[in-house]
Design a protein that fits this description.
Chitinase A, domain 3, 4 domains, four-stranded antiparallel beta sheet, 21 strands, extended, PpiD_chaperone, peptidyl-prolyl cis-trans isomerase activity, transmembrane helix, isomerase, PPIase_dom_sf
Length: 628
């Protein structure tokens, strides 16, 4: 709960006054905000203050780069993400200008000395704890910002900060409320649960009427989705490649031009002796020359070690070692050699000569690459042919034949790409965008030429539309029978648990009840908080609620469902929270939540005072631009 409160409090401020409370350029992304560019249309205006389209686009782009740095470069731009970031940027820009409008009416100002202190205090401009003007100027050059512009931006930030602080500075959270919250949240309880396993309940086989009644009562769980019959002509490099022949001369020419890619350079493995000084390594070399092995020398001499190098290719070692190693024959021992790592004595243990894969070995893969390249070159003309066929009134099948595309007829596919049997369609790769187009189209209205994200072209025609409907019993008999059985077993488990609870209230112990009922088992509930942290997952949130609603030594008022049946819950112990557990953090979380509430109300008041006008056409244009 504490984490959720923190996130909520932070979220309000970020969403409504994005960046207003932070002076650091690293968060504001000033480098992107102030880059030059041609003027653009105004997207929003309030109190004579404009929000230009180019500012929103730069802020959205900057936000996306920050997301990429946090989530990894694998995050790709897509319309939904970019539209969300742009709308967030619009709200932030409006929020800044609302505060600016309020400040202008109050004649607020920030003096030069305060602005200078704020800039000098930013760590990014400091060296050794002191302001470094060269770093400041380098930042301005890299960001394309004039010093005067940056100073005025900082002045505006400080003014907004002062106004926000004035509005929210008096907000305080009472410690007594924080203590009550911590005591409630951190309290733990122990208990026991007598669980009646539903799977142990014996039930009769359902008749036809019972299944029909059950299906009717639960028809929402047994809906057949909308299915569509569709004809597709799909054109990709792989489809055109089947008709392309690559001659031997072309393969040989490609092999010669790419021969370096099939060459594996010579590799060597070596054994080395390593010492800290020249005298020691020369003594080691003398012993090796007299017939001792590297291992014997390393074992006998203090300060000498032996290790293996490689396999390595020429150029992978430091220059001196590299030249020495590749100048030796196999089995040869080099001269002592000094490097930054110490003094070395090398012996070549093995040499793997350079290898070149012959044409015969790589012919098929080369031919496939050339075929793919040629198919890609032919793809635009083939796609145009398919488009012309449709535009001329041809069918999808005729368009496929004219362009050399693959023709596929699907009898039934749902919006997720599954067939009528619930299995993925295998005859053609259907991505989300293709399915979206198919399910937005009308019946017997051939599509325009479309392109997928993986550069396939396609046209389609919806031949049949079967609306979503409740499934008939003969279609889902097994599923309905199983669900009916499980529901019936759970009902019997609840009835059995209710009977056991009545006996427990009359004085029979839970142990005796567990022994008397074959389907029942007695479980211990270890200390658990209200949010079920540390909770036995064999039970359920309902069991936790019953545990906290019951005083120690008492039984819960009624049985509760658990994943595998029904349970009687008994509380055995209350473990109170530590007196000062997270009090300071909770006070701050409450304060931030209250501060966020104040900011929300203040922003609404500012919007009422300074109406915001948004040019929807300009906004739509920017959304389209950032989504590309």
């Amino acid at each position: 709960m504490l984490d959720a409160m923190r996130k909520q409090a932070t979220g309000w401020v970020v969403k409504i006054f994005l960046g207003l409370l932070i002076l650091s350029f690293a968060v504001w992304g000033i480098g992107d905000i102030f880059r030059g560019g041609p003027p653009s249309r105004t997207v929003a205006e309030l109190a004579g203050l404009e929000v230009p389209a180019d500012e929103l686009q730069r802020e959205a782009d900057n936000s996306f780069r920050r997301l990429q740095s946090q989530l990894g470069q694998g995050l790709e731009r897509n319309p939904a993400i970019m539209e969300g970031l742009l709308r967030q940027a619009l709200e932030a820009s409006i929020a800044r200008r609302l505060i600016d409008a309020q400040a202008a009416g109050m004649d607020l100002a920030v003096d030069d000395e305060t602005v200078a202190r704020a800039i000098h205090g930013q760590q990014v401009f400091q060296t050794g704890g002191r302001f470094d003007r060269s770093r400041f100027e380098m930042f301005l050059r890299q960001a394309g910002i004039g010093e005067a512009s940056y100073v005025e931006q900082t002045r505006g930030d400080l003014m907004r900060q002062r106004l926000v602080d004035a509005v929210t500075g008096a907000v305080a959270a009472p410690e007594s409320e924080a203590r009550q919250l911590v005591a409630w949240r951190e309290e733990q309880r122990r208990g026991r649960a007598l669980v009646v396993a539903a799977a142990e309940m014996e039930v009769e086989a359902p008749d036809e009427a019972a299944l029909e009644t059950y299906l009717e009562a639960n028809e929402g769980a047994y809906q057949a989705p909308e299915y569509r019959g569709v004809e597709l002509a799909v054109l990709g490099p792989a489809d055109l490649g089947e008709e392309i022949e690559i001659g031997e001369a072309a393969v040989a020419e490609a092999y010669e031009s790419r021969k370096a890619a099939y060459r594996t350079p010579e590799q060597r493995r070596a054994v080395q002796l390593l010492a800290a000084d020249e005298a020691t390594i020369r003594e080691a070399a003398r012993r090796v020359a007299e017939g001792q092995s590297f291992a014997e020398v390393a074992g006998a001499m203090e300060g000498v070690s032996t290790s293996e190098l490689g396999p390595v290719r020429q150029g992978q070692l430091p220059d001196a070692l590299d030249k020495a190693l590749f100048a030796l024959d196999k089995g040869a021992v080099g001269e002592p050699l000094g490097t930054a790592f110490g003094w070395h004595l090398l012996r070549v243990a093995a040499i793997t000569p350079e290898q070149v894969r012959p044409l015969g070995e790589v012919r098929d893969e080369l031919a496939a690459e050339l075929k793919l390249h040629e198919a890609i070159n032919r793809l635009p003309d083939a796609a145009n042919a398919m488009d012309d066929a449709i535009a001329g009134g041809g069918t999808v099948e005729e368009a496929a034949a004219q362009a050399g595309a693959r023709f596929v007829r699907l009898d039934a596919v749902d919006s997720t790409g599954l067939d009528a049997n619930g299995r993925p369609v295998e005859s053609v790769a259907l991505d989300e965008e293709m399915l979206r187009e198919i399910f937005q189209a009308g019946k017997d209205q051939p599509s325009l030429l479309l392109q997928t994200a993986d550069d396939r072209f396609y046209v389609f025609n919806v031949t049949r539309i079967d609306a979503a409907r409740p499934r008939r019993l003969e279609e889902v008999r097994e599923e309905v029978a199983q669900a009916w059985r499980e529901d019936r077993q759970m009902s019997l488990a609840r009835e059995a648990a209710a009977g056991l609870l009545e006996k427990a209230r009359q004085g029979t112990s839970l142990e005796e009840l567990a022994d008397a009922q074959p389907a029942a088992s007695l479980r211990t509930i270890e200390p658990v908080t209200r949010d079920a942290s540390g909770f036995d997952r064999l039970l359920s949130p309902a069991a936790v609620q019953a545990l906290f609603a019951t005083p120690p030594g008492a039984l819960a008022d009624a049985p509760v469902e658990v994943p595998d049946g029904a349970a009687i819950v008994a509380t055995t112990e209350i473990i109170e929270a530590a007196p000062d557990a997270e009090i300071a953090q909770t006070v701050e979380a409450l304060r931030q939540q209250m501060r966020g509430d104040v900011l929300v109300a203040w922003q609404q008041a500012l919007r009422d005072r300074f109406p915001v006008e948004i040019d929807q056409r300009a906004l739509d244009s920017v959304i389209q631009s950032v989504s590309q």
